[in-house]
Protein 1
Amino acid sequence: MPLSALFSPVRSRDEYELISPHNITPLSPLRSGSKTFVEKLRYTVRLLRHKRTLYILCGLLGTYCVYILSSGIPPSFSDIRDYERQLPQHTWDSRGKEDGRKYFRVSDPNRGRGFNNVIIEGLMMSYISYVSNRTFVFNDYIWANHPLPYTIYENALRPSRIPLNAFISGPTAGGPIPNSTYRAVSSDYYDTICPPGDRYQLDTKDAPGVNSDGITLVKWWRDQLESTPDRCVEARKPVLDLFFFGADRLLPFWDGFRQSPIIQEYSWSFLVYSAFARNFYLFDTMPKSSIDTKAIIDGLVAIHIRRGDYEQHCYTLFNERAPYMGVNSLPELLDRFDPPQDKDELLKYYLARCLPTTKDVAQRLRSLRRDNPGLKKVYVLTNAGKLWISQLTDVLIDDGWSDVKSTYDLHLDAQQYWVSHGVDSLIGEKAEVFVGNGFSSLSANIIMFRLARGIDAITNRFL
């Protein structure tokens, strides 16, 4: 084929001829401008749509942030942290490694659990450390384990962690122990003198099962801790499971626990006592000394009404046929848990003691007033809604009580607000008569401390 054929204008059906740029007819300015305008218009509309969505999202986020912040920014408790750092057993230098003390810490403490469950477990771990001649390592009250100082809960800020000494004092929180040098230390101090390489992880796979009683459990832990030569010992799981406190397994070693310095030297924190002192005016008849742990508020009956989560939890307790909490089953207490056999009556029995109506509460308090004619006033420890408490107050005033106050009547500053559980508990301990919820750890703790202070067991009653 001659070379000129390669440049022949003839093309096959499957070939395309290049178009000379000289043969292209340009678009008219109007047509070109119209296309550009339409594209710009479409782009602008899309952009505005995205921006509008972004503005809406930013607005919603900003509104939510303002709503959260409207509840206030919780305190840092920096003064109480400084107090803990300055405890005399915290040497913060090499002497801490040479003083011969041995330590015990639960390295994975409970997080996000109720305050009273954490307190009773801390007391038990402190007791096990005490009988094992080891120094207990106390932790903050931890709600959320992250580096931020606050967390969001129920659309409000709350402290991620609160120092233990904001709530309690005494041996468990680093206070002195009579005839002992094993004062508890903070987890921060422990991390300083017990680096990770020096820590022995205690194997708990052979620990007694859930059906073991308190004496067996404590003896096993004591044997393990005493036989371990390592200076820094940790357990990765809680020493005692939650079911231990919810049954009568605690009772066999109750006397030894109650008489130990862990309980006898226990006290609420200065912050809790300051809140109690601030609210003296709620009660006409006050003890001679507000700091005297054995002083009683004459004429006052304190009653624990738990609602909120209990509106569902009480039915769970019924379905599981749960008994009273361990301490609430002590034989010296007058009100026994004696459920009927009939299922319909059984549900009524549970609800009257776990989730009482205002009528149930009024009837129960009326019967106690017949037995204790000196009772004049009522204080309600509660998480119930304000409307429900208002209705209960009206019913009790109509039933002859001279005054009714509740948790909502407490005047608390920013720090005191976050330890209000302790303030309620202290008022319950000081009342002439305390009426508890037998299924509640808060009620169990109040009764435990009342008995430990020598207050007559017959003044502790249940709904």
Protein 2
Amino acid sequence: MDKALKGLAAREPSSHLFDDCSENFTSTSTHSGCSQCNIVGQKAPLDFTLKTVMRIAASSSVNWIYRLITNGSYNSVSNHTSLCACSDGQRTSHCSRTHIASTSFCSTALNSWIYPQSTLPLSLMSVLTSPAAEKVEMDFLKKRQLSWEESFRSLYYLFRKNLCSIFYVCTSQFVVMFTADGDSGRSKRTCSAYVSRSTRGLRSLFREHDLCFSMPLCHSKVEQLATEDLVELSEIEKHNLGQTRRPSSLSDVDNTPQSLLAFNGNKDVHGLYDLLLNYRSFLTFLTGVDIPVLYSPIPFQNAAVSVPEVRCMEMRPANHIADSIKEDSSSGGDCTAGLCYTLEITDAYIPPWIICNICALLGSQGRFEASFVTESTSIGLNAVLETIFGKSDSEALASEVLEKTDIFGMSEATVTPHLRLGLLKSLKYCNGSYTASISPA
């Protein structure tokens, strides 16, 4: 009875979990402009945005997922030591591939490697960076910054050596995603990078350093003004005391998903890496906050295993409570009848490799539903799908791409062109296929 009452207070899942699988999602997954698409197969659609919450509802117990996430992470720490020990020189390629390949799926697939392990709050940073800060505090911040630079170099080195196909740099203002197309075993791959949000000043900075980028989600032609034109316009504004106004579309897109920047090609991606590595000199608006957080599916120097918070719950729909009371009072009653098992996974950031691997594990056990909360600063990162599909939503092209077995190093994922201009709101898996609810970006 206690379990039943606790279940009534749970926020998730939908009461339609046990409906016929041929039915579409309920109205809760289709309002607010959401669309749906079907993906045949056991691989979950790959959403490149970062999530903060994943809620799962299944018809069988999900406690085993909880154990894999919390216990499996500790089994992977020994591999980290071995990997870092051989991360220099020519031995990197051989050693890294050996240890990554030998790590079991359940030990690492449900966790991320991050640096730093925790972020300093703004209140503490204001004390540490104040003029009254003592030498001890200043030394602490300097060492922290140097360790971050060391970690970023290590991760980028693994990325360029084809040992890592995707990783994230998360700042307080935007998220940067680095990706490399093709299989990790190829001798040379084309790299891309995406800055989720930008401002006019940031775009001007990139142009001043001869970095070429596009704005695939922005349809304003005014953005193509040269840097010299923008400087001249600023001078005119100053002398006319604000009477001259620059076109509103220039500022309207700032800090929105439409301001996403795409860098394609190894030269421009490396230039972006250099600027981020030295962000304290170039991106002064980030100097008052803690160092950016690095997220990777593989270990890198100074990295620690990130274990999200996991909560398991049992829920029994209201129409089953009366029946369960009667069954509990009789010797032949089944106390698990009508139970729905839920799992809530929360973290500052939940990257796509964790989402896809959890879906793969759940799908192997039967049907389930999942809903997501997206980190707002990462919205728009699915623009990377344009490098795969172009601007076409052709089903024939989709079928051709879906045949790939390893997309950005994630063997348990597939891609769909329907996510190119949106993000994954929820998933329903049943009878070997997914129904995805997609929200516009």
Protein 3
Amino acid sequence: MPFSRPHPPFCGYPQLLGVALGIFLGIFLLSSGISAGNPSRLRVGSVVGPRVSHFRGSSSVSPGFGDRFRGRRKGLAQASTGNWEEEKSVQIVTTQGCKFCTLAKQTLKDRGVPYEELSVAGEPTMLSTVASVSGIRTVPQIFVNGAFVGDCDRLLSLDPDVFFTSGDPSKTLPDTTLERLRAAGEAGNEIKNSAIASILADTGDEKAAEMAISQTPVKGMPLNIAYQYTGQALPAGEVSQALQNGMTSLFDKHASEGGKALDYNGVKNDKDFVNLVRLAHSLQTCDPSSLSAGERMSFFINIYNALIVHAMTILGPPESFLSRMNFYNDVKYNIGGSIYSCNDIENGVLRGNRASPASVGEVLPFVKSKGPFKEGDPRLPLVIKSPDPRIHFALNCGAKSCPAIKVYTPDTLEIGLQSAAEAFCSDPSNVDFDADSNTLKLSKIFQWYRGDFGSDSEFYELLKQAAVGERGKQLGTFLDNSKEVKVEFVPYDWDLNSA
């Protein structure tokens, strides 16, 4: 089943093409029913969670239920949806920056169900341990007395009395695993705090960072050059991980609407945002040139996602056709003396220096477009030679249809990318099918970046591996048994996730 040539929204440089061409393309895009904006993203991942202070421990109990529910928690209070037995306890495995984790936690609280949150954010490798029991690598995962009962979709679709009595005894977390999860959350938090404290120690730039937040940056200038960073040059990977960890923590404090929106004003006025601006300025002296391919991929995914949040917080979301077209070229960081826009990071580094699918050449076949890095560009050696298409599930773009944010490290890159792929492809709003009409319904990301996903057979295999659970099996059967599949690209939700 071949795909048609993608026609993404144009977001190149209209000032170079003239007003006439801009008007022509605008009419073309509107007539094609495609939203204006850069398909390379305009959203920030949705996250939410209990109102906890920045950089606090990642293993916590839902607020309002008291300390008696910490640890194994015996004698849970009667839930509003049914009678709870004395020995029942609920554990929910989560990570930072996950809108479905937020939604699941909010649903449990609304139903009066106390729970223990076990975050794998501090040690993502624990997700593999949990997956060996539950069979899935996405979060959230909900357990009753250690027995796996389902994910967020199952929680929302089943009657509560059915859900909480449907645990699979063959998928039970051993007590040792539960204790490791608790310890991993606490240890990860200590490591994160010490790393950030080390980075920010003795820089003396807190007042300068506060002033940078209060001022409106000059259009097109990097967001991290409001002042000169004079501290010690720091390891690039550590800075990117600390920066992204901080951003996801802020998300958890300021998300709303069940994880679907983010209060950017709340983020901007949060004292912890000052520390993140300081971290961003330390990128001026970071040198990513010595990083391996896996280290570079982790570094730039983290930086891209942090840059989007930084930009949305300081500049606000783009509100017009033209501002949205230029957003990804205008939003930039200075990294080691070189300037990187969002488009430079995504299309130059992570996609192997390929032309943006929203460039002129992708809209007008008679125009040839190239990648953003030309011969002699000092950024060219940082290009990922063998791009991984799963980066599209890891990058966040500031609106409500994008993948949930993750913090990537070289050690957890593979499981992180696969987890992001599973989370994205298991969401029916991104991948769905109708067997009666023989139709495969896909996010427009798959249309805009069709060339990144290889042949049709390679693309189908990726879908089958990424769509997990019972629904994933059904999708696999559908793709294996259907000969003439019709492909329908569903409209992309460009509404920004600002509260």
